[in-house]
Amino acid sequence: MSVASLDDLRRAGEALTVDVARALHRAHAGLASGADLAPIYARHADAVSPAALEVALGAFAESEASTTTPHDDAARSARLLAEWEVEAQTGRALASIDEREIAWEHAAVVTTPDGRRVEYSGVAQAIANATDRAERLALDEARATLVARDLAPLRRERIARERDATESLGLGAYVDAFVRLTGIDVRALAADCDALLRDTAAMWDDVLPTFARRRLGVPAAELTRADVLALFRAPEFDPFFPGGAMVATVRTQVDAMGVDPSAGGRAILDVGERPGKRARAFCAPVRVPDEVYLVLRPQGGAGDWRTLLHELGHTLHFAYTRADLPFEFRWAGDATVTEGYAMLFDHLLHDPGWLLRYTDLGRARTAEFRRAMAFEELHFLRRYAAKLRYELALYEGGLSWDALADLYVTTLGAATGVRYREADALVDVDPRFYAARYLRAWQLQAALTGTLRERFDEDWWRNPRAGPFVVTELWGEGQRERGDELALRVAGIPLSFAPVVRSVEAVLA
Description:
It contains 20 helices and five strands. It is mainly α. It has two domains: about 1-105, no CATH class; about 185-265 and about 300-509, Orthogonal Bundle (Neurolysin, domain 3). The strands form two sheets. The protein has a three-stranded mixed beta sheet with strand order 3-5-4. It has a two-stranded antiparallel sheet with strand order 1-2. The longest helix has about 35 residues, at about 75-105.
């Protein structure tokens, strides 16, 4: 079928997206040994044809020149379809290398000098659970050696090819094309991140040594990334977050707020152990809203509960998206929105009322746990702020690969006080500035949490009137709006780090 109109593009785009999503879900869930992406793009060649690109970019150019508001749904559709088409074009160019990386991750094994062998997919968990520092440093050294030899070259090739493929489409340099297509000014956001790092520096310098000394017995100045994995593992809280009660407890809470946690069978939970299952949990919206998977490989403790809540926020968002919305509002759009919903749910582990009701922590341990969560939150805020600044330099292309490795270590080290490895400079990168989506999602969840508390009280998460509002006013709209538009519509405020920082300060002060 030749793509001659936006409706043609919607039909072709959805067919391609479903097949790619299904292949990636099966590969990362351990249901298949790899993902044959190149044949999928070949089968759906009409969706990534020159004609499809012309239709998408033509409509986008017309919407940019129009006098109508950019928040008009027709203008939104044109922008989202153009953004989707550009990502699909680059996805086709990257299909073979993505296949190679997925196959490598399935087969790779980390081997330490003493002969210990750990699947690459499980090495982060092994490092986090290692109570002996020498053991976790040896594991991380072996991991970094493997990454530098095999994975980093793949990622370097992917980043270069992605940048070249995007810039070949006539939208300008990579960063400029991203800003134009998404409406997200990543340079302005990076400036806000610089301010965040300055404003929270004293607080971070105050709490990091205390946590490092008390939990690990390691001076803050000696912390490595491997130590940080163990630092946040916090096994002392494991008895209060039992794996066997996790799913039932979360289902009970979601049901209490007036929402069916299975979304009528459309939300499918896969939370068991399986060989080949990716260690990093994920939501796989295979057919929106009819078939959405939550995939989690248990690692133990509160981290599993937080991860389940985070991915459930994604899963219910897609499973409750209105079926009558066009393809681009159900599938494409600003991932700030779905990440905001995910953080809205995972931040329930910061809520004292939720913790007292759904866990056996008790008041004293609840205060201790919330402080630990605020410490971890501050770390990730600072880490992602630094990541965005680093990734801007990476995608702007003005530095050599060797210089980028040094910049990565110094930039993230300065923000976190932790020693990073040069081997990870091209591995610790999420494509298309996904770090910006996470950062904006922190801001969005703060805005949404404030609104839900105002409308439905502090315990909105068990108010049966809250669920229908969330389904209708939030999840049901898919990703029709950008995160900043959603914050203004629902909360009446712009996205900002200020409420995020205030919530952290209130606990850590």
